[in-house]
Amino acid sequence: MIYYDFGFYLLLATVVTGAVVLIDKLKWRKEREAKGIEYDEKGNEKMPMFIDISRSFFPIILVVFLLRSFLYEPYRIPSGSMNPGLYDGDFILVNKFSYGIRMPGFNTVIIPTGSPKRGDVAVFHPPHEPQTAYIKRIIGEPGDRLEWNRGVLTITPKCESGETCQPIMLRPQFVSDEVPELVPQGEVLDLYSENLSGNDYQVLYKGIQRSQSLNHSWSTVVPEGQYFAMGDNRDGSADSRFWGFVDEDALIGRAAYKWLFLEFTEEPVIFGKKLPKGVSFGRVGSIE
């Protein structure tokens, strides 16, 4: 599948400008030399505009392409599904080499470097909206049996022949009925803590009486080559419980750092868009 995101168009721009620069070096400039190179009043060589633009922008585009495609990609949190750890308006850096070096636009693994672990916060293309990017926490790895019983999750890992795998019990611990300041206050929410694979983080529920998550039970087995992901805002997240599993080929990277927070206007201001009204660096740090 081709993902028509910014990375795809950046790849296209790199290829086009690079090809123009290469052809100019091998052919077109020699033709200009044969006819006699012309210079402007500042002593710069006169050349067709598309060649001039390509030669000027190719180095910049190439550097941005390499950094963004293979090291770190900026990403804006678009919703409150990962409250309370990540807010709508947080800007983060996604580690692009955590889950394999991938071909931009096609997302095919070129060099395997690792795979998601339980507890990771990952960015990926969901199966029902493959041209968008979602961010959720990885809960189940390939082969895991997941059993959810009113908020308590039992993870039974897949065992190789002859091995004994101990179930992992994920039980939320109540912390407070007061949620962090920037979490929407329109409804009653309770704050809980969890620990999965050594990762300590907090999650939100609507409360025992109102929470769908705390009053339902289900079970599933994660297929090979796929992952089960959930938002930390358990009653305010559309995730693998609703649209299915995350394919290994749809992974983008691991959410690594928060580097900026923008607070937006409550109502659209220009062309139906909300505008930033506040900037903060107070939330800078790694993502748990």
From TrEMBL:
One of its GO terms (molecular function) is signal peptidase activity. It holds the Pfam family Peptidase_S26. Its EC number is 3.4.21.89. It catalyses: Cleavage of hydrophobic, N-terminal signal or leader sequences from secreted and periplasmic proteins. Gene3D superfamilies: Umud Fragment, subunit A (2.10.109.10). It is a multi-pass membrane protein. It is found in: Membrane. Belongs to the peptidase S26 family. Keywords: Hydrolase, Membrane, Protease, Transmembrane, Transmembrane helix. This is Signal peptidase I. The chain crosses the membrane at residues 6-23, 56-72. Residues 53-259 form the Peptidase S26 domain.
